Amino acid sequence: MLEVIEIAAIAAVGVLLTYILTAASHHRRLKEVGNKLPGPRESFLWGNAADMQAQGGLVLFLDHLHERYGPIARFWEGMGSLSISINDPQLLEQVNAIRLEKRVDGLDFLKGLLGARGIGYTSGAQAKARRQLWHSVLSGQPFQQSMLPAFNTTVEATLKRWSKNGEIQGEGVVIEFNTAARVLWLQLNQRLRYSAFPSLPFSSAWREKRRLLTFIHTEEAESHKDWGTGDLLSLLIAAKGQDGTPAFSPAEVHDEVLTLLFGVYDNSKILSHTLHQLACHPGAQQTAREEVDAAWSGQPPRTIQALISLRYLHACLQETLRLSAGRGVIWRVMEQDVWVGKFLLPRNATLVAPTASVHSNPDYWPEPSKFKPERFLETDPSTGGWRPVKHPGGHSLAFIPFGFGLRNCLGQKYALNTATLILGYILQRFTVELPTKADRQLHFKEENLSLESTDGIHLRLTPRLSPVSQA
Hints:
This protein is an alpha+beta fold and 471 residues long. It folds into three domains: 2-109, no CATH class; 117-142 and 192-264, no CATH class; 143-161 and 176-191 and 266-326 and 371-389 and 411-471, CATH 1.10.630.10. The protein is built from 17 helices and 14 strands. The chain has helices at residues 2-34, 49-55, 58-69, 89-94, 111-114, 124-138, 148-165, 177-191, 209-223, 232-238, 250-263, 268-280, 282-296, 305-308, 311-325, 355-359, 412-429, and strands at residues 72-76, 82-86, 167-169, 172-176, 329-333, 338-340, 343-345, 350-354, 377-379, 386-388, 430-433, 444-447, 450-453, 458-463. Strands 1-2-8-5 form a four-stranded mixed sheet. Strand 6 (338-340) and strand 7 (343-345) form a beta hairpin. Helix 9 crosses helix 11 (250-263). The longest helix is centred in the N-terminal third of the chain and has 33 residues, at 2-34. Mean pLDDT is 79; it is low at 193-213 and 223-228. Keywords: Heme, Iron, Metal-binding, Monooxygenase, Oxidoreductase. Its cofactor is heme.
């Protein structure tokens, strides 16, 4: 018996030593290869954490990194954790970024809140199959017909409340739109049969997790009674796999719902930032308003086509995403060694695509700091009107606010259509203005890998003198 234990102990020590030697060899290679790439010096234990903190967060750090070191720059997220940031779309294409898998292990801290069975934690064939299921759920576009009347009602009621409760200034009302837009966005998500997401992780509302989970379970049970009524929760439950069995187990429905709640939490920034840009650019606002008046004739939009037809307004949303509201970070995993010019990008390193830096790259976006919605439009020879540019910025990876490739955002059409609906209503009824000259300049701080305006976004809504007649 003692001999068996001794053999097992020796084997365990051997496995441990092999693991340590392999890890050390991997670490040494990453250090040797990584430090041949341009980038700042790092701490042995903490990598470039101090540099990130000094810049105000990862997003701002990456902006600074590319300003100093060029289109390829490396940094260290800890001892031996190599990240390579690329802000040039052609180089992202060269490393085959659109086919690389997302680095999900960096999101492990969210598993306790979101659950580990949602699409955010799947990979490989499982991720592909899950995305196909999601596409089958969303292909019917519940937003189009079944949800549009409910959304119209919610937006109408909100505009009346804003007019009544805003701070009176002259003939208009002043509203802080960061808060107002978030409240409205969460109300619309409730129409999808989602409870308002309580908070981001590690806040005081984290303790409400069990209550939220209980709510989702209750919603599931109720939805089983009326499958396929058009809301997303019912459609998830009703979805079938190729063999005719339920596509999602109750546990998977539960985690998918929570994942989506987290994903749509800060999409309201699209709305508030676009309104701010339109207030700063009255000419663009008037062009967008004329488009809405011509398309809707003062009526509530009743079809998805009434939203899709607003090409210029959609371009305003895209340009806002490029300038400010779409600032984030995309992570992928290098699957093999790749040479890019004289630089070797090693296997298992983290590839980072910093959207803010990509979207301000002057090689693809001339005068990148200017608000120019026309970047996203071109003339349609057959009609003489506008049509969307196929590749904004001249490259398929030059505009990536919703990610790219296998892991692009499934909810991007929902986010843009919802913002178009709300903006269309506002432009129908109001002129949007800056209350003071000081409100033109926004100041940002980084929160949860995106930039938040520190002083809010204050705008004045003044009723139009001669709005298009409404039914």
